[in-house]
Amino acid sequence: xxxxxxxxxxxxxxxxxxxxxxxxxxxxxxxxxxxxxxxxxxxxxxxxxxxxxxxxxxxxxxxxxxxxxxxxxxxxxxxxxxxxxxxxxxxxxxxxxxxxxxxxxxxxxxxxxxxxxxxxxxxxxxxxxxxxxxxxxxxxxxxxxxxxxxxxxxxxxxxxxxxxxxxxxxxxxxxxxxxxxxxxxxxxxxxxxxxxxxxxxxxxxxxxxxxxxxxxxxxxxxxxxxxxxxxxxxxxxxxxxxxxxxxxxxxxxxxxxxxxxxxxxxxxxxxxxxxxxxxxxxxxxxxxxxxxxxxxxxxxxxxxxxxxxxxxxxxxxxxxxxxxxxxxxxx
Length: 331
Known about the structure:
The chain crosses the membrane at residues 84-105. It is a single chain. By secondary structure, this protein is an alpha+beta fold. Helix content is 31%, strand content 31%. It has three domains: 3-104, no CATH class; 118-242, Jelly Rolls (Sandwich); 259-330, Phage tail protein beta-alpha-beta fold (3-Layer(bab) Sandwich), CATH 3.55.50. A hairpin with a 2-residue loop joins β17 (321-324) and β18. It starts with a helix and ends with a strand.
């Protein structure tokens, strides 16, 4: 692809000019090594063109990034990553977590050249996917999710990056920890079944344990390291910097992989975003009117988006909706 078209793609994405169904496709293309030199040149141009100042949160985020990448800034040249601070402060780039993980999963001996291949699975809205990992572990990816890992999961640590939601059934290998990294947390398990939900457009990330044990680490606005037990859910509100532990039915939480939609004390926003991802639709509503309240409801795999909205209508007196193809309007 020539530089002109690459510049158009990147600029449109930074300006939030992509429809939501195209975002994951863009992320998948952007992290590939194809045309990496030209992509770097375009980001350099953005770096030089924009005038922006970082705040304390951005600087803390960069410090966290440097720690997680494990790079020594004095001896390693990473032109692209050196520009991410400014680009992120300007554009609030949602795929920054994916890019950083892409670098982390490559050789960290001091060479900026990638030394291993990355397997990537992108699940668009309206779909789900089951994956068998090279180590025998199983993963179910929910709609609107992306999973990255080294193509053979070799090495002393099995590292994966998740953006979205997935249920993991981990093959036991005590000598090789299994670590799932998301934008806001790290989850470590030796052999267990657990669910991770961490969408970039959500204010919270959650880990729910079905069996075994996992350790959840957060190094952001708060620094937390917690071991959770079966039927516990650990929730991190990254906007407020708060954490909580809830008692839940873990099997019920993971029933999305069977087609169910299950909400326990969920916000209206969370329900709508889940509906958008599940049915590949766009929903417009007045957040001031429907922003409050918590809801508990379960939808069966056989219900379509209209049936789901009809049930939601009964839970919200006065709610009315209309549909035009894949666009829903709530009044």
